[in-house]
Here is the input.
Amino acid sequence: MKKTALPLVALCLALLAGCGPADGAALPSESPTDTSAVLVDGAPWFATFRVVAGAETGELVLAANDGTSGEVYVLNTEGVSLDRPVENGELINVYYEAVMESFPCQFSNVTAVEHTETERDDRCGLYLQVLSDLWEVDPGLNTNLEELAVDLSELTDLSESEKAAVTWAFGNAHGLMPITGTWEELVEAGYIDGENLSWNGNGCLFTLSGSADGTFRADKWASGLGAYTFSDCTAKMGKDGSWSYTIGYEAIS
Here is the structure.
């Protein structure tokens, strides 16, 4: 099970590091220490985000459209004036005055949210559905989890920010803060006993690899004798930007 590495504690480090303005907006060199919000010189700013999840409830999970930051943003649209509902998969512009130093990042003083009128692509929603479907099959592998790990490092059609947002949204849906890392990194960090092929505790690793533009694979691994795979999956995007997928075959061990 050899995989290309993602930083094992990427999300945990974000907790400590805080968040900055997206899409190139820079923080002052010295951030204030007596407030939970970082005020940005020249605010209000706007930045473009992909809506990854939460459009149904108004609790949006967002990925920065610059694609490189790996940060996750959340936005409650209650009280925000919208000309029409926001949809998962679309790009929106968010106008804000500050970013809260939290994980996920939160906005302060959002003055407007606008649709960008670009083509909707709910590819993140596709992968969240795949992860949800994988969670439901052979549920004994992920019952009463203490550790939920996610490895999207070999998924080639999402940005780093989108991967981080999908990972966080998946964990949040199950009440867990996910760990990011490959199987090898989890062994190195002590989560998995590599010799006995078992978790040190009750954990499960969910892995996605490939691309919706070609074929992709989804795995969950609880032990050497406890794993489930969706293999040779293909996907198709509808005219409205939503996706559906077909599993080539399933395997269990």
Summary: The radius of gyration is 19 Å. Residues 1-18, 23-40 have pLDDT under 50 and may be disordered. The CA atoms of residues 59 and 161 lie 18 Å apart. The first strand starts at residue 37 and ends at 39.
